[in-house]
Specification:
This protein has 14 helices and 17 strands. With 470 residues, it is α/β, with parallel strands linked by helices. It has a single domain, classed as Alkaline Phosphatase, subunit A (3-Layer(aba) Sandwich). Strands 1, 4, 5, 6, 7, 8, 11, 12 and 15 form a 9-stranded mixed sheet that branches. A hairpin with a 4-residue loop joins strand 2 (107-110) and strand 3. The longest helix has 25 residues, at 330-354. The protein is globular and about 70 Å long.
Length: 470
């Protein structure tokens, strides 16, 4: 056991390491926490271009043919049978007829960059010169559950640490009174924000934006029936039992992480309640996010809370916005999804930029995959105006903003069908490697020993997409 571990063990055991003065014990406590806490700030491998990440996850798979990547060939064949470029070995569940499906809403060049963005995203069109659009991202699975898991953890099966947990593990937190990783409106799969085999302190803290004053944004954060002094006594008792168990096993990262998590939860009571109180924001800022409007209120609050969390020092904030799985009636349903998210997302970019935070905050927008350029008719009898689109992991669009990426830049190209990448191909592992790189972390060096081997977010794959770096 090294000196720091021994010192920390003595302090946790309550001995004060032999120092009789309470003042000295207090100083020792502070020094040990700073040196040994799994959330303490760490030096990055590289010169970072960003300090933190806000990941906007569009659950279900946004339709890139309708939003960012129109194809003249598909438009010219609208409603006609086409022969897509598949080799016969690929799974095409749910598709009986390959009917070309053109966008229903115009997709136009925007801003000085000329970036192609649909009329369904007017807010994003206003900030297009601040974003970097990747048009040829691809992943490995076309089913929602494994694709979502791979987007968040790098692996489509197995229990692995999530992206936010890896960042927390590599960099620590900027604020000792807040978690380093927060997930707002998370998916039902806890693995998407879990720490896996990393210390438990690195797992994401779930947050739900309250819909009414009686809702709790962070569960069990406050106990109205118990004073802080009584909470401290209860926590000390539980921690004493934890330390006794830790003394018996001598080394247990999960137990040490749990001890730190309990202490963090206690400290959060001093800062988190004010942080999640959005009423303190000026009305002009709330209006920017669409708060108070029926369609945008929930996502607007989530995006504003993400900005507040990020500004306060949370290293990784993840916001999940569902409703993008459009297998049927995509022309009507996609507009609803865009209306619910466009103003909040654009408001976030504008707000970060106005506060001087965009350059040091990496914003990432993506689904788990995209949608096919041909239509899908679940009923088998619906007119094409009521058709939807199937899942497409072969190519989809992701965009990034701030944090060291080129602004107003489009990277990647797909074939005439909008199906396979033909230039600027970016695998999900490459995306993860690039995100880590922008935070100053070498994805090949950010490893953790587990079950006899070194694991990393990108497994044995991934390359930094240098073409998009500013």
């Amino acid at each position: 056991m090294n000196f720091h571990a021994w010192t920390r063990r003595q302090w946790l055991a309550g001995t004060g390491c032999g120092f009789g003065s309470l003042a000295l014990q207090g100083l020792l406590q502070k020094a040990v926490l700073a040196a040994e806490s799994p959330l303490s700030t760490r030096t990055p491998h590289l010169l970072p271009r960003a300090k933190r990440v806000i990941f906007l996850f569009m659950a279900g798979g946004p339709s890139q043919p309708d939003l960012f990547d129109p194809k003249p060939y598909i438009a010219s064949k609208h409603g006609e049978t086409i022969s897509p470029p598949i080799d016969g070995h690929e799974v095409t569940v749910g598709i009986d007829k390959y009917l070309a499906l053109a966008p229903d809403v115009p997709i136009r060049p925007r801003g000085q960059s000329g970036m192609l963005i649909s009329d369904m995203l007017p807010g994003l069109a206003e900030v297009c010169d601040d974003i970097c659009l990747l048009k040829a991202v691809h992943t490995d699975n076309e089913a929602h559950a494994p694709a979502v898991l791979q987007m968040h953890t790098g692996a489509s099966i197995d229990v692995r640490p999530s992206l936010g947990s890896w960042l927390s593990y590599g960099l620590g937190t900027e604020n000792e009174n807040l978690p380093s990783f927060v997930t707002i409106h998370p998916t039902s799969d806890v693995r998407t924000y879990g720490a896996g085999f990393l210390p438990a302190a690195h797992q994401g803290t779930p947050v739900n934006v309250p819909g009414s004053p009686t809702d709790s944004a962070i569960k069990y954060l406050l106990d109205a029936e118990c004073s802080p002094e009584m909470q401290r006594r209860r926590l000390d008792f539980v921690q004493q039992l934890n330390r006794q168990l830790l003394d018996r096993v001598e080394s247990d990262q999960q137990m040490e992480g749990m001890i730190d998590s309990f202490e963090l939860a206690f400290r959060m009571q001093s800062e988190a309640p004010a942080l999640i109180d959005l009423a303190s924001e000026p009305k002009s800022v709330q209006d920017l996010y669409g708060i108070g409007e029926n369609d945008t209120d929930r996502n607007g609050k989530a995006c504003l809370l993400a900005r507040r969390m990020s500004e306060a020092g949370v290293r990784f904030v993840q916001v999940t916005m569902g409703g993008w799985d459009h297998h049927g009636n995509i022309r009507a349903e996609l507009q609803k999804s865009c209306k619910a998210t466009d103003m909040p997302v654009a408001g976030l970019i504008k707000d970060l930029k106005a506060r001087g935070l965009l350059d040091e905050t990496l914003v990432v927008w993506s689904g788990e995959f995209g949608r096919t350029p041909w239509s899908q008719d679940l009923s088998g009898t619906a007119p094409i105006e009521k058709h939807g689109r199937e899942h497409q992991p072969e190519s989809f669009c992701t965009w990034m903003a701030g944090g060291g990426v080129k602004a107003g830049f489009t990277y990647g190209e797909t074939d005439d069908f909008g199906f396979r990448p033909i230039a600027g191909k970016v695998h999900l592992h490459d995306l993860h490697a690039t995100m880590l790189h922008l935070l100053g972390l070498d994805h090949e060096r950010l490893t953790h020993r587990h079950a006899g081997r070194d694991f990393r977010l990108t497994d044995v794959y991934g390359s930094v997409v240098k073409e998009i770096l500013a």
